[in-house]
């Protein structure tokens, strides 16, 4: 439980969770949305994965990340994001990414 709270204590990690709300993204797609170094984004992803909030899957040369929807912490985070004005546009972007992937037939 401590790992979950530590993971959710970081604004960039909460933003990553919002981006993953509707679509899985590869590490590069996630990093492109932040003005921090790729190694810093990688560290944030590692913390989220170690807390059991996301899982990764290597496909070819890319590592894709997605939420673990059964996680109680993700359920609570989703609820909080509904009332958080910062997360709304990020979740909207996540939904748009998911729709584009459906439209183009890719993951």
From TrEMBL:
Superkingdom classification of source: Bacteria
Domain HTH arsR-type: 1-87
InterPro entries: ArsR-like_HTH, HTH_ArsR_DNA-bd_dom, HTH_MetalResp_TranReg, WH-like_DNA-bd_sf, WH_DNA-bd_sf
SUPFAM superfamilies registered for this protein in UniProt: Winged helix' DNA-binding domain (SSF46785)
Pfam families, per the entry: HTH_5
Protein name from the UniProt record: Metalloregulator ArsR/SmtB family transcription factor
Record keywords, A-Z: DNA-binding, Transcription, Transcription regulation
CDD domains (alphabetical): HTH_ARSR (cd00090)
């Amino acid at each position: 439980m401590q790992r979950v709270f530590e993971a959710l204590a970081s604004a960039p990690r909460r933003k990553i969770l919002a981006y993953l709300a509707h679509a899985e993204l590869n590490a590069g797609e996630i990093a492109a949305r932040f003005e921090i170094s790729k190694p810093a984004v990688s560290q944030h992803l590692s913390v989220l994965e170690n807390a059991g909030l996301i899982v990764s899957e290597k496909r070819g040369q890319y590592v894709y990340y997605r939420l673990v929807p059964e996680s109680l912490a993700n359920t609570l985070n989703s609820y909080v994001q509904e009332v958080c004005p910062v997360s709304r546009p990020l979740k909207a972007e996540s939904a748009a990414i998911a729709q584009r992937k459906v439209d183009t037939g890719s993951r």
